[in-house]
Structure formats: structure tokens, C-alpha cells
Write a structure and sequence with these properties.
The structure is a single chain. The chain has about 260 residues and is mostly helical. The two termini are about 20 Å apart. It is built from eleven helices and no strands. The protein is about 75% helix and about 0% strand.
């Protein structure tokens, strides 16, 4: 039994639906740009909004009369969508062995627990890489239909790298919680709750400058479109911090999975 290919096949339909959803989100979002923002009207509307809402929407960081600016604002929703996929995938790929009562069969195979969890994580990484590539290619094609000659591909590439870091972090949040939790069936909801809390915290920081010191507690602040676009690039400190978080989550996941009693 090849666990890697078994897991890849098991989540192929889910990946297809998520990919279609991301493409539809991009299409509908950029269609709204053509109807409401391309003439500069949306910039004027946002200028009349309260400062808190302007901060939330990244006013001042984006020129919403340009396709690149509107796409940058849309990235908030794209980041949230792909991290939901990642965190639920990470939790379910561990928890399903207990939920489906296949753990006892799995551990009768001549494979170490390290080999099993490695295959599962690699299969999950393949899923999020594919979703990231779908988002990348779709962004280039769809934004390219509205950019009027503006060069956006470099910005899209940087944004996709940041998105991939977020996907990996929250994938491992899911696997870690599923590995350490005594109530494995609740791992997906708990990890999704952590993701939502991190997302809300990132918004709260934008709304209240006094919370700026909490930015290190939410990965959504590490990779913000308004900071990465227009030559901003990736912040080395946040990249290193992300690598550290990923390493710690991997260590905890492997350690907990080896010790976990999954016989059902």
C-alpha cells in the first residue's frame, strides 16, 4: 500500500472543487473591478469611509483604479480561503484514520510511524502546491485581462510565495492539533478556530495601532499584499520566523504521532 498515493487520490476531488472555487473567486472579483473600480470611483468611495474601514481595506496602499491594486485587496480573501483548505486538510489527513477506523489496519503494515506521517504530510503538501499553482496561473491569466499593459506578474509571484508560506503553516497547525488532541474528531474545528482567531487578530491590528506588538502572533501579518506588492517583497524576518514555526510544528507533529495510540 502506497500511503502517499492513497492520500493523494482520496483528496483529489476536494482539490478539484477548491481549485474551481478559487478560479470563480478570481473571476467574480476582477469582474467587479471592471464594473466598480476601473474608473476610479471606488477610490473616492473609500476616501469617504471611516478611517477604520479604510485601514481594513488597505486604503492608501492600493490604487483601486488599477487591476493590480484591486487584486491586492482581493488577496485578503484568497489568503483566507486557501488557509482554510490547508488547515482542514492537515487536521483531516491525520484524524480520518480514527474516524474511519482504519488506524489498526494501517499500523499492521511494515511501515514505521515516521514513514506513515511523512507520506501523509507529503501528500498534503502536494495538494496545497497544486492549489497554489492553480491560483498563480489563474491570477496571471485573469488579472492580465484587466491590467491594460501594467506589469503585474512579478507582484503575483511574490504574493504566491507568501501564500505558500501561509498554506504550509496552517497545514501543519492542523496536523499538529490532530496529532496531540485526545478528541481527534474536534481537531479540524479547533484548528479552524485558531485560523479564524489569527485572521481576526490581523484585522484588529489594522484597526488599532496599539495592537501592533501582537503582529508576530498572526502569520497573516507576515505576508500582507499591501506590504509585498510594488517592490516591497518578502520581509526576511517574517520569512525566518515562518521557517521556525514550520520546523517547530513538524517536530511536534512527528513526536506526538509516534506516541499517539491510534489503535481503534
Amino acid at each position: 500500500m502506497n500511503i502517499f498515493w492513497r492520500e493523494t487520490k482520496a483528496y483529489s476531488k476536494s482539490l478539484l472543487f477548491w481549485s474551481i472555487g478559487i478560479v470563480l473567486l478570481l473571476v467574480s472579483g476582477m469582474n467587479k473591478f471592471e464594473g466598480t473600480a476601473a474608473g476610479g470611483e471606488l477610490n473616492q468611495v473609500i476616501e469617504g469611509m471611516p478611517e477604520s474601514l479604510q485601514a481594513l481595506m488597505g486604503a492608501g496602499a492600493y490604487d483601486l483604479s488599477k487591476a493590480s491594486g484591486y487584486y491586492g485587496m482581493l488577496m485578503l480573501y484568497l489568503f483566507f480561503a486557501v488557509t482554510i483548505h490547508a488547515v482542514t486538510l492537515g487536521a483531516n489527513i491525520i484524524a480520518k484514520e480514527e474516524q474511519d477506523r482504519t488506524a489498526e489496519f494501517l499500523f499492521t503494515k511494515p511501515l514505521s510511524r515516521n514513514a506513515i506521517i511523512s507520506a501523509k504530510i507529503l501528500a498534503s503538501l502536494l495538494q496545497i502546491f497544486i492549489l497554489n499553482l492553480v491560483t498563480w496561473e489563474s491570477s496571471i491569466l485573469i488579472v492580465g485581462m484587466y491590467n491594460n499593459g501594467e506589469q503585474v506578474n512579478d507582484d503575483i509571484a511574490v504574493l504566491m510565495i507568501g501564500m505558500l508560506f501561509l498554506q504550509i503553516i496552517f497545514l501543519l497547525v492542523g496536523t499538529t492539533l490532530a496529532s496531540v488532541s485526545k478528541r481527534v474528531k474536534q481537531a479540524a474545528s479547533t484548528s479552524s478556530g485558531i485560523l479564524l482567531a489569527a485572521f481576526i487578530l490581523s484585522i484588529a491590528i489594522d484597526l488599532n495601532e496599539r495592537l501592533e506588538g501582537l503582529k508576530y502572533f498572526t502569520p497573516f501579518k507576515y505576508f500582507e499584499a499591501k506590504e509585498m506588492m510594488y517592490g516591497g517583497g518578502l520581509d526576511l524576518i517574517y520569512v525566518l520566523l515562518s521557517v521556525l514555526i514550520i520546523a517547530v510544528l513538524l517536530i511536534v507533529t512527528f513526536t506526538a504521532f509516534r506516541k499517539r495510540n491510534l489503535m481503534v
